[in-house]
Design goal:
CATH class: Alpha Beta
Strand order of the largest sheet: 1-6-5-2-4-3
Oligomer: single chain
Radius of gyration: 21 Å
Number of domains: 1
Number of strands: 6
Shape: globular
CATH architecture: 3-Layer(aba) Sandwich
Order of helices and strands: EHEHEHEHHHEHHHEHH
Distance between the termini: 56 Å
Bound molecules: adenosine-5'-diphosphate
Helix content: 40-55%
Amino acid sequence: MKYVHRVDGKVQLRDIDSSQDGGMIEDDARKETSRLGKELEELQELLFAAGMHSLLVVLQGRDTAGKDGTIRGLSRYLNIQGVKVKGFKVPTPEEIGHDFLWRVHPHAPQKGMVSIFNRSHYEDVLVVRVHNLAPEGAWKKRYDQINEFEQLLVENGTILVKLCLHISKDEQKERLLEREQDATKSWKLSVGDWKEREFWDDYTDAYDVALSKCSPNHAPWYVVAADRKWYRDLAITHALVESLRPYKDGWLKKLEGMGKVALADLQEFRAGQG
Ligand code: ADP
């Protein structure tokens, strides 16, 4: 894929330049994003109408990496009637009392629909690993469990696109400081974000392991250079279009068949009237 780094085997985030711009200038990138966005809109309509597959977009990234901004950007192209956004926060006592996938599975998209996960089941091998929130024996098994869960989804018609928004430590600092200066953004301020920064390297290690262990061919991770928001938006829109495009002909074929049946029904109805 053109603008993202597909994880294939072992990966180290520090080897991937988060400030990449693909040699583009912002204006051109924005134009290309909007062209791709229109294609995304058309593909979503076909996905919805054909009802053969669903799309699950998994967004992971550190605080301020741009998960919310990405969702806002995609909302310009996606028909919200066919989209559900689910954020995963600190688990409730009831959720903690179950296996870690219990709270996730009900939000997997039904055929025809798109689900966007703002954080996901990967938190259970990221924040949980960094802060020892579960015994090591428990979280270590989760990589295999995640792979099996995702395989189940894919084998049942889910098109799974996992996007890791990758920013640098300096960029995060800038974004956090920006929130302090901007009254419209200061509601997002949280001491926790600064505390989590102290675990930057631990998170990097946890991401490296999760991305490396959970990127099989049928459910690969894509690392998105996210320091430049316009490049991030381009990379993500492109990745989604490329992931959906291979299904387009199959959907069109099904819709053609459905159209013929509907037309024949209508003709029969009219003949009966006449
Ligand atoms: P945002 O996603 O916008 O940052 P919050 O500020 O409410 O939203 O952050 C959600 C928090 O929930 C994050 O700190 C994240 O690490 C935490 N979280 C999500 N899933 C889990 C989990 N399974 N176990 C522990 N913490 C989790």
